[in-house]
Amino acid sequence: MLVLTVAGILAALSGVVLYFKLKSMRLVDRVKLQMAIHAKLRIPQLFQLTGLDTRMKPKLTQFTASNGYKILLPSPFTVAVNEILKFKVREDDVFIVAYPKAGTTWMQEIVWLICNDGNIKEANKQLLTLRSPFLEIVDCHLRNGFQSLENWSRNKQRVIKTHLPYELLPEDIRKGKRCKIIYVARNPKDLCVSYYHFHRCSKMLKDPGTWPEFFANFCSHRVGFGDWFDHTLKFWEKYQEDKEKIYFETYENLKKDLRKEVESMSKFLEKKLSEQQLDAISEHCTFDSMSKNRSTNMSMLGQNSISTKKSKFMRKGQVGDWRNYFTINQSLAFDELYQEKSKERDLIFLLEIEF
Ligand code: A3P
Questions:
Q1: Which of 97, 198, 244, 250 has its CA 20 to 30 A from that of 177?
Q2: Catalytic one among 38, 141, 163, 197?
Q3: How far apart are CA 353 and CA 355, in angstroms?
């Protein structure tokens, strides 16, 4: 009896210590710990899919990575950056890189299918985030986080999504390791509108405020993942240096002729697909089809992740929606900024993106 009482008191004391320890931790670390415990206990539940604790108030963090690179990130995205820098890249890896809202999800589905013989049946069986992990929050999506990615079957090509800028990609890539990178760029005006709406519905991001407020923050890079120009122009530069490694795609080109782009990317990825397979991938990846598809439309993530009352992940999927948001003055101011930034870098590719 005495032993039981002592054990009870000790258990209660450890509970109190644990409670204060958890309370003193930064929320983001607490969420990470919780996720690790869930992963250890092998609890496959929504929390792991969304990676979010609804109590966690999203905010932006000015983060300095271990290589000294500074970037403004939504706080849940800071957790893995230093691990990502050390991530071991394989030669057959395909990285889908894009600034948020450029068409990352779209590209993931296309590339996953190109790399998997256009196997739509298989694609429909599993959520896209499980087939093509999101590097920054891989701990949330895969049961054993980075470990799962490291132990990924050698027979299955890894198609990895990231929004990180070139400077924060795994060091292996920047040291010259061969792999394939597909970068997706989008007309920044449309991207800004899409990002605004995503802030309205994503529980992982800060409330965007009004449209003019968000527009001002975007132009002065006070949004997650920082300066759109830096992000995109850096990859444009890198693409010029190594076109075998980097494929530079635009949202607008995908919209213009999806079939042609799918074929061109399959060549870049050195995949031989039949005409029928190319047709099937293109049909499967239209906005209409992907927005109805539960493995790609993010509806499985539930209200804890995206509040569909405010907006949808698959929102409009159009080119030129910015015209419904930008005032004439905002548009002129953005054009000026755009000219200035492109001139600075002596790059003209953005002019090819239809405004
Ligand atoms: P909108 O908000 O303009 O509709 P990301 O995946 O990088 O977050 O980008 C999301 C944007 O891509 C959203 O843009 C979404 O609707 C659009 N999108 C996703 N799949 C698409 C598809 N198959 N065709 C066209 N647009 C697509």
A1: 250
A2: 163
A3: 6
> What's the pTM value of the predicted model, to 2 decimals?
0.85
Of 194, 211, 318, which is best to mutate to test ligand 1, by the most ligand atoms within 8 angstroms of its C-beta?
Answer: 194
Quote the pLDDT of residue 19: 82
How far does residue 106's CA lie from ligand 1's centre (Å)? 6
Strand 70-74 relative to strand 60-64, pairing: antiparallel
Question: What's phi and psi for 331, nearest 5 deg?
Answer: -65, -45
Using an 8 Å Cβ cutoff, are 105 and 171 in contact? no
CA of 94 from ligand 1 middle (Å) equals 20
Q: What distance in Å separates the CA atoms of residue 172 and residue 165, rounded to the nearest whole number?
A: 15
Q: Which segments of the chain are extended strands (E)? A: 60-64, 70-74, 94-98, 159-162, 180-185, 246-250
Quick: pLDDT tens for 22-56.
777 765 566 667 666 765 665 544 344 444 444 45
Please give the pLDDT value at position 343. Answer: 74
Closest CA to 112 of 123, 103, 121: 123
Domains of the chain: 60-343 (3.40.50.300)
Give the residue whose CA is nearest to atom 20 of ligand 1: 106
Task: Please identify, by atom number, the ligand 1 atom nearest to the C-alpha of residue 99.
Answer: 7
Q: Is 221 a catalytic residue?
A: no
Nearest CA to ligand 1 atom 19: 106
Average pLDDT, rounded, for the chain: 87
Q: State the Cα–Cα distance between residues 192 and 190, nearest whole angstrom.
A: 5
Q: Is 298 left (phi over 0), alpha (psi -120 to 50) or beta?
A: left
Q: How far is the CA of 291 from the centre of ligand 1 (A)?
A: 9
Query: Helices then strands (H, E): number in the chain?
Result: 18, 6
More confident residue, 143 or 177: 177
Q: Exposed, middle or buried, 207 (CB in 10 Å: 0-12/13-18/19+)?
A: exposed
In sequence order, the 6+-apart residues with CB closer than 8 A to the CB of 165 are 69, 71, 225, 226, 230, 231, 234
Q: Are 102 and 191 in contact (CB under 8 A)?
A: yes
